[in-house]
Amino acid sequence: MARTILITGATAGFGAAAVRRFLADGWRVVATGRRAGRLQALRDEPGGDRLHVAVFDIRDADAMQAALDAIPAPFRGIDVLVNNAGLALGTAPAQRASLEQWRQMIDTNITALATLTHRLLPVLVERRGAIINISSIAGSYPYPGGNVYGGTKAFVTQFSLGLRSDLHGTGVRVTSIEPGMAETEFTLVRTGGDQAASDALYHGANPMTAEDIAGVIHYVATLPPHLNINRLEIMPVSQSFAGFQVHRE
Ligand code: NDP
Ligand code: 8X3
């Protein structure tokens, strides 16, 4: 019988690629996001008859609940939750950053992710399912301008490990996927629509693609049921680590 996966942030980037990956593999997919037109367009793609789309702002807990309540019966038995919706806003140092942008990142990357997880835990436990959280290398390695974004992703990683501990014995698997540089709409969103800045960041770097990460999500979701990848950090070959910074008087 086909398995069912709910993927948040399915209108672009990793989420949209993951929807296509799982539809191609015969899964039933629930896809969420704010941009209705993009979600509806996915229904016209191969396997679109196995896609249910749920349009809501993930920060709106009431809209989230209404969308969950409206999921049609064939899609209600969710086996895998992919908490992917998220964003970075701004690259300014903390002392010049926007508090409004900080709050939007916290509301989206932390509060909404925890809320949806809380609401789906009963069905995931019942079905011995899986939770795949999209964290980031930014949660492990600080960089200038990463401040609250990195903090939100550190939450996602640690929350994933905590969930795994709490879900011990239930059969529910939990994985934190922590990608590095991948070309999606991420930098366009972060810079407020600066396509030149986005192009400059990825130029010549051969970054990861949305399809690369969708493949990793699919790999994790289809592992034999006795295996759990706790954390999976993945970067393009072109990206590695730099040292600490030293300020000299
Ligand atoms: P994109 O900007 O391409 O996609 C982000 C998705 O999140 C969109 O579908 C967007 O949908 C959704 N989203 C954002 N805010 C909301 C909201 N308030 N309500 C509902 N949906 C929302 O970025 P990526 O695919 O790159 O990002 C996906 C995840 O991967 C994020 O959590 C990001 O932090 C993480 N990540 C990205 C990396 C990268 O280099 N690209 C590296 C590491 C982690 P819509 O706007 O239609 O609502
Ligand atoms: C996205 C990767 O390094 O731009 O989470 O923060 S990074």
TrEMBL record:
Transmembrane stretches, start-end: none
Residue stretches making up the Ketoreductase domain: 3-184
Listed GO MF terms: oxidoreductase activity, acting on the CH-OH group of donors, NAD or NADP as acceptor
InterPro entries: KR_dom, NAD(P)-bd_dom_sf, Sc_DH/Rdtase_CS, SDR_fam
SUPFAM superfamilies: NAD(P)-binding Rossmann-fold domains (SSF51735)
Record key words, sorted: Oxidoreductase
Pfam families: adh_short
Domain of life per record: Bacteria
Family classification: Belongs to the short-chain dehydrogenases/reductases (SDR) family.
Protein name in UniProt: SDR family NAD(P)-dependent oxidoreductase
Organism for this UniProt entry: Luteimonas wenzhouensis
Lineage: Bacteria, Pseudomonadati, Pseudomonadota, Gammaproteobacteria, Lysobacterales
